[in-house]
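Project standup — Tuesday

K.O.: blocked on the structure for the chain from last sprint. Re-posting the sequence here as requested.
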Amino acid sequence: MPPAKKRRARTYDSARIRAAVLAQFGYVREGVRGLGDEELARPTDLGEWTVRDLAAHVTMAVETVSRNIDRPEPGKRELGLLDWPFAAAARSGDIAEGTRELAGSNPDLDALYARTEERIRERLITAPDDRLVAARTGAMTLGDYLVTRTVELVVHTDDLNRAVPGLDIPWDRQALAACTRLLADALAVKAPGASTEVRIPPYAVVQCVEGPRHTRGTPPNVVETDPLTWIRLATGRTEWKAALEDAKVRASGERADLGGLLPLMG
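H.V.: unblocked you, prediction finished:
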């Protein structure tokens, strides 16, 4: 778990986040719809999961919104938005079995996507952002939980694209931005400080790592990368050393080595 020191979570526009979740889910549905049995049987980089398993898991990540809205509202909030990345990493092993069962019991993936999309659209019409939902990781507000869904959707869109050459499912800009920002803020929670500036244009800039505080001019310690590389680093899809060697990351300064802090989510 991250250090006890609290960092205030940034605010997200509710309408944009809701639209982003629906848009990214729609993009994935369109991409999966065109896959044949051979492509669905391909392996992924996620352990023993096939592309079919991964595609089914995407619906599970979205269906949790509808299912939790249908459940009785929890009595109190247990998790803030910046707590979620660390709590989610600890629960990743619980998800694998349910994913395989879902994939096995739903041979018609598009029908599964259609049901999932219909349910979340219906429930988001009336559910307010401050409604508490009993997420697997802990009770949190619906508004915060929807931001976490952008992480699930963006990360697994990338997983699908890497597993099936030429699939090229697009990213919704707002979903990609929210995912990038949440994972950047999580780094600042894990390594509080202001000696290193991490830049992920055009979506996020955070200061982190203990040491002398930078106040003006060019920071002495700078890390810069693109959103997709950052997301892969934060979730363990890419290793820090490999990203440096491939020139996907530019790092300067004695406190610019983030290798020991990554991944944030495994």
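K.O.: great, moving the ticket to review. The longest helix spans residues 142-163. The chain has ten helices and six strands.
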